[in-house]
């Protein structure tokens, strides 16, 4: 689906690109639209497929490079998922607010978003006792969801 107008989140992301002296390319704009439209967590392959549907002229490798540069610029967030592909979201999207962490059920593989401040006490303790700075949004924490625990029990 081609977009004729940019949402507030995409406009903000494009403005950030320009502020950083970066070019606004068709690929970057398409990636931002895909992430803004997403209702769930998308891996690079999912994003490339959706960009191809919206902008058939954008090469897959260009989508991957765009994701990498947008992540390095802090416009797109990525989360490493154990045993699976890295997932991405637009930092400024209302559907994916800044400041959340990810939980993944190791049984059903569903994701759950939690406010990152739930991990603040753990981060504080790690900093105080180990001098380690936790990046709670950067990796998914594994566990078993209530539904899978009930089914097993």
Automatic annotation (TrEMBL):
Entry cofactors: Zn(2+)
Gene3D superfamilies, alphabetized: 3.30.1490.190, Winged helix-like DNA-binding domain superfamily/Winged helix DNA-binding domain (1.10.10.10)
Annotated positions binding Zn(2+): 105, 108, 145, 148
GO annotation terms (biological process): negative regulation of DNA-templated transcription; regulation of secondary metabolite biosynthetic process
Keywords: DNA-binding, Metal-binding, Repressor, Transcription, Transcription regulation, Zinc
InterPro entries cross-referenced by the UniProt entry: FUR, Fur_C, WH-like_DNA-bd_sf, WH_DNA-bd_sf
GO molecular function: DNA-binding transcription factor activity; transcription cis-regulatory region binding; zinc ion binding
Coiled coil: none
Domain of life, per lineage: Bacteria
Matches recorded under Pfam families: FUR (PF01475)
Cofactor stoichiometry and binding remark: Binds 1 zinc ion per subunit.
Keyword Transcription regulation appears in the UniProt entry: yes
Presence of the UniProt keyword Metal-binding in the record: yes
UniProt record similarity statement: Belongs to the Fur family.
Protein name in the entry: Fur family ferric uptake transcriptional regulator
Species this protein is from: Flexivirga oryzae
